[in-house]
What we know:
By secondary structure, the protein is of the alpha/beta class. It folds into 2 domains: 4-254, UDP-N-acetylmuramoyl-L-alanine:D-glutamate ligase (3-Layer(aba) Sandwich), CATH 3.40.1190; 262-410, Alpha-Beta Complex (Protein-Tyrosine Phosphatase, Chain A). It contains 16 helices and 16 strands. The chain has helices at 4-7, 9-16, 33-46, 75-90, 100-114, 152-155, 159-167, 183-196, 210-213, 218-238, 245-254, 279-293, 312-319, 347-364, 380-385, 400-410, and strands at 24-28, 51-54, 66-68, 71-72, 119-123, 141-144, 175-178, 199-202, 262-266, 269-274, 299-304, 326-329, 333-335, 338-339, 374-376, 392-397. The two termini are 38 Å apart. The structure holds adenosine-5'-triphosphate (ATP). Adenosine-5'-triphosphate binds at residues 29, 31-35, 146, 220, 223-224, 260, 274-276, 280-281, 284-285, 400.
Amino acid sequence: MPIISARCPHLRHRLAQINYRKPMSSLVGTKGKGSTCAYCESVLREHGLKTGFYSSPHLVHVTERIRINGKPIGKGKFVKYFWDVHDRLSQREKDGMPMYFQMLTILAFKIFIMEKVDVAVIEVGIGGEYDTTNVLRNVPIVGITSLGYDHTSLLGNSMEEIAWHKGGIMKKGCEAFTVDQPANAMKVLEERSVEKECELHVVEDCPKYAEDCIGHPYSIYKRNVSLALTLSKAYLNLKGLKEDSDLTQNALRTCSWPGRFQILSIDNIVYHLDGAHTEDSIEHCVEWFKQQTKHSKSRKALIFNSTGDRKSVDHLKILQKCHYDKVFFVPNVSRTDKSIADFGGGSKSIERCELHKEQWLKLLGGSQMIDSEVHVFPSVFDALQALKENQHDLLVTGSLHLIGAVLNIIDPNLQQIPHQKK
Ligand SMILES: Nc1ncnc2c1ncn2[C@@H]1O[C@H](COP(=O)(O)OP(=O)(O)OP(=O)(O)O)[C@@H](O)[C@H]1O
């Protein structure tokens, strides 16, 4: 976990010495950080600002995490800046090298400075108070998306503890915005805003036009879009710029954030990809899949995986609200010769898939589904081979890394921008 103060105390000091002349906008939360940042970035860019955008995790290529004007940084620049940062840091041997997420964070900030962005939109990694991104001090606008239970072994098991961590990104004098939260979480956020000496506002619903502009299910994304529009408007105001609703609508329409409620149709398979990994996200995801496939005659299939401290049995229970002809449990591995993203293969991940299979069958109890339709495969490629003979509506969910492993096979350059109308 990227807690600077616990594992790498020198880093905060070192980063604190960098003069971040460009104001940044930070975003934290449990659900919808990435998409809220993406909408926010798109609106600011559409209004003529040169944007930097730091997000995590990546789906296929690590360069997706660091974007300039909405586009992942090119490989050449990534490598050049990486070695600049690496060489500077390794001169101070006694401090040791930063860990993966810390390194990427330093790299992103360096790139934003060198590329002279007007504004940087920063998605927090895990938590907030102790997250690596929280070394930033010049952050005039911060946003907190919907809070829920995730990463509980790091942040705590209660809503209050989680809210305390998330509220840690508020800064003295900044303007902080959040969406409707459970009462106990909101109380903690309010206390944190007093402690941090800033104003906390709850955002209003976004204008009606947003519903026609966004490609994602509006009922779920309304909060994300409302927050994104408020954050970008606050930033534009700060810069003395006026929001133009035509530009905003265009920004919402053209914003691309793959791997979330994305539909791709390739050969016999209609892929429904959503990186839901909390209980209520999975709940939304199943509803969305049911809605999308209600008139379809194709067979239904599910590919699922979950990692970390998540209670997968609760997720599986929700996923059983839909009937599937085939259910595959697969590690976040695209092909067996190649694992991608941060959580790849290995015997432990297969063991976890076997456990998911066991849980699934146990939950089915009386079983409308015979055992042979539930399999563990070592890679996504193997699972897709087992589907290709017939027309399938396939749902892939449980982990964004799993979605990355699928995209790595079917759309490695993330070119098929998903813009599905509701
Ligand atoms: N407002 C929301 N309410 C419930 N679920 C949401 C919401 N927004 C996004 N999600 C779910 O979370 C998944 C990830 O979306 P997104 O990348 O925007 O969130 P995130 O908070 O950045 O996720 P991560 O924790 O992986 O970084 C989506 O695929 C969707 O299932």
